[in-house]
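User: Fold this; tokens only.

Assistant: Input:
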Amino acid sequence: MRTRSLPIALVVLAVAGGAKAAPRPTAPAETDYALLEPRSAAAVADSTTQATVRWKAPQVADGVAGYVVSLNGEEVARTKSLTYAHKGLPPGRTHLFRVAACNADGAPGRPSKIAEATTGAEDGEVMPLESVGVFERGRDVLITWWTKERAAGRVEHGPTEKLGRTAAGADDVRVHVVRLKGLEPETTWFARIVSTGARGRRGASAVFKVRTGRAPHSILTRLDDAKRKRLVLPGDFVYRGAFRPPARATGGSRWGYGGTGLTYCPTGDPDGADDGHPGSLFGIGHGHHDKVSEISIPAPVVAADRKRGKLPEARTLQPFADITGGLKARHKFDDAGGLAWIGKRPGQDADRIYWSFYIYYAVQSAGTIDHPAFGRSSLDLARPDARGLWHVGPYRTSAFHPKKTANYMFDAPRKWADDHAGGLCLVTGKGDGCGNGGTSHGPSMVAFGPWTDGSPPPDRAALTAKVLVTYPPKRQDFPYWSPSDAWTGGAWLTAGEKSAVLICGRRALGERYYGKPRPGDGGGGKGYHGTPYEAQFLLYDPADLEAVLAGRKRPREVLPYAVFRPREYLWGGGRRLGAAAFDRRRSVLYVFEPLGERPLIHVFAVAPT
């Protein structure tokens, strides 16, 4: 498998029930990825005909009996060493190595990223192709690479080594992205990357193999029958359609360029249509305002031709307003985090919405910028009766710093929270690389419950909290982490006897790059870039979180068991998602998708098979 506020569209997922279903996605191919990928694979050309690839053992090396080395998509060696040299390579070509650990039976685990080496040409200078990525997605194959100079790029490809077809990329760029679409399924395909610079200097890869027909969704670890019966799988999602949030601005804000927080309210819109989609959504609007509005939920419609006019538009139930009652401005926070509706808890007389804010560009040390970031308000946005601010967990503690806690927020099932987490049924976390130090290198999760510390807790209280998932910097516990990843939403899914903890957002598939955006990076300012990007749902096993709370597992050892890629349903190229919310009674999930001033709302059902 492997920014600040951006335009959004809202994605809705349903888990069982609802409107007429579109065809179920193809069930994912199941690959045994029980062994993690080798780390830091790198290759270097030793001569015009030889290259050496070196790597480190997986982060968790239990069960590793050796390594399988592939060259240009074909296995060439098995070894117990951490290095391999290959002779007899054609000169003047970029060659693609990958390494996978294997168990005692010889079964390979998850492969490393591609390690490329360019052999010199005997008759002239060669343009090296760097940071090559090849990503199979069903009948599509995404191929990416860098060149140090601006160049035109193309991929020659075909069903045999004779190739015969060409997919052109952009001209005059350093970051090259080419997608091969609609290939014959379940087929070994052949491809060659070619780049040509303005002065005629040329670079080309050796012909390499890819395998089409690999499902766009992935099972990342071995799942026995018992786990399959209790876990939501990628094949359980069924598309339901889409709708639009209100286009009209209210209260000094609008839905475009927002979507950093979202929550479902089951008591909202009591006089709405009897269309199988009761309740309402509270969400955060434009990132320059960070105000909250409440909207209705119309029945979604499938618009295969992507014509927005066919989609219903939600109604505004409460206009945009400052849910913090002025607390955000007084504390000079510059970005909104998450929202979570929670029904009346002990010591409370009404339902509440919990929220968070944080400092976006946190470049100071963790101790310098530690601050309370959480509060709660009533459901009446005009009179929010805001309380706070509070700190999740102890102050001056890395595990509970706002860099790890103050973004997405969602609720866990109350019975699960009572049985395993002392009644702490709110889960919060953060999963981006902005700022220095202190961030989790992968999406984090922390359980808390403000009502356990008072109703409400005193200002600046350090709330009782428990770490569920976190990935310390520099360890590579979360596979293929990139500072350009942006995990922006979460939900605890339940569907019949099945469940999963979902984290959604943007995964950077390309190599990390820091600086101003290059041609091909798709805009943005100075910072980390990881073109290309892909929207993903990560699925975590609730039993792993129970094991952490019981002391049987460390938070950094919890990894997703599956990934769902909703690209074919999204309207914005499938590059990223925003916040998420969940209707537990009807098993419906809502998630924003980036789409500028014209956000959407897609709907799926998780219908267990």
